[in-house]
Design a protein that fits this description.
Chains A, B: It comes from Leisingera daeponensis. By secondary structure, chain A is α+β, with helices and mostly antiparallel strands. The first copy, chain A, contains ten helices and eleven strands. Chains A and B meet through helix 1, helix 2 and helix 5 of A and helix 1, helix 2 and helix 5 of B. Chain A binds a DNA duplex through helix 4.
Chain lengths: 229, 229
Amino acid sequence: MITPRFDILGQAISDASRTQMLCELMEGRAYTNKELAAAAGVTPQTASAHLRLLQDAGLVVAEKRGRCVYHRLAGAEVAHALEQLAAIAPADSLHRAQQRKAGGLAQLRSCYDHLAGPLAVAMTRAFLDRGMLVEEQGAFRAVPAGEWLKLGVVLPEKTGRQPFARPCLDWTERKLHVAGPMGRQILDHTLASGWVKRRKHKRGLLLSAPGRAALEQILDLRCGALAAA
Amino acid sequence: MITPRFDILGQAISDASRTQMLCELMEGRAYTNKELAAAAGVTPQTASAHLRLLQDAGLVVAEKRGRCVYHRLAGAEVAHALEQLAAIAPADSLHRAQQRKAGGLAQLRSCYDHLAGPLAVAMTRAFLDRGMLVEEQGAFRAVPAGEWLKLGVVLPEKTGRQPFARPCLDWTERKLHVAGPMGRQILDHTLASGWVKRRKHKRGLLLSAPGRAALEQILDLRCGALAAA
DNA sequence: AAAACCCTTCGCCGCGCGCCGAACTGTTCC
DNA sequence: GGAACAGTTCGGCGCGCGGCGAAGGGTTTT
């Protein structure tokens, strides 16, 4: 009987503590055991067991540096598959509502290797509205435009086998934003140019004043309300 | 803290019996409780509990007809998400080997709503080799050709938002074959024209003599060895 | 060297859940 | 009506696993 080892993966993500950790890791950064333990609300030794399991399932990789062990998602495919799962996850409106009420997730955050959150959705909306991006065949096709250069995006000469700009469904918004190589380039550029900064001890990203100005100048995107963080 | 309800889905697919059932349902057909119980190797009352859980998770829908209850996957998104999961599932070579040894899965079978298995992979290979299909941007683009009509495929006039021919990673082969609307059209046509037939009490599909002849004539596909079933 | 810190391993507890046998409801067929 | 069958509910058993406290390597700091 054919049975892809769903059960191993399912086992890995069937526990609330582990899902919490995975969500944390979806930020794309590497986290220590202790950090993930705190995120899941369990003791370090329990987190250690969970992480070993996630590692065995191939979802997470660990790297030892000094006395700390840094855990990271095993790859973009893992992040992508988890996104797919989130897309069919039952809508938990109550859960989502209370999360908003509690200040919730930042307006801007990283989703593995690209920008996510309401602001990322708004940016993608702007790309589509301005004709810089076209959605077809379930993928995004980038249209050459001067704006891309200003955003630090270098378009490939020819379309490759892998999608350059992949649509990614936002968890909280249930709307599309840009993932894939293009998403990575945008994140890299906005970080490098100081448009967005990583927050110290909180999740999410922060849009700086220059960043706000740049988005308004390049995309005519008014994000005054969004940047109130 | 943001946490898409991975845990509900994970819970649903974390059990071997349930994964077995889901794999059965990936055929695309509807199955009764008893059939799924047999497939998973458990008693009907146990299967009943599992199916209720899968239903609550939104993965499966049930339809009562007479004294039987027919269970089906909740939709194409579910099938797609499961495929994605299978793509990152740890390779279980031992498992796969023993499955081949045991006669394994048919050379041809249905994967939710399209053809799958080695023969489907070979067909896709032929499409690509003959230039009828081009892989780009992570999607398949169909090139107008007379062969398509002979296969019962009607190409859309303009590219839509959803991919017409979506690549689907085969569980057993780990190679691509055609899913999406095109895949559905191909499956429908091959069934309607009697090229392939559903087996009575066994899983998988059977390639008929006319079907073999048609594939050889249209695609120059020699599938003598493949059809030995 | 000692202290502080991060992580892991071990042992134990308790809940949860998968499983089945038995009994019950509802439908179909004779 | 009665028999046969599909499915579900209930009760009880037993394993598995998530959780923590305690103890044991390893690394960094003082």
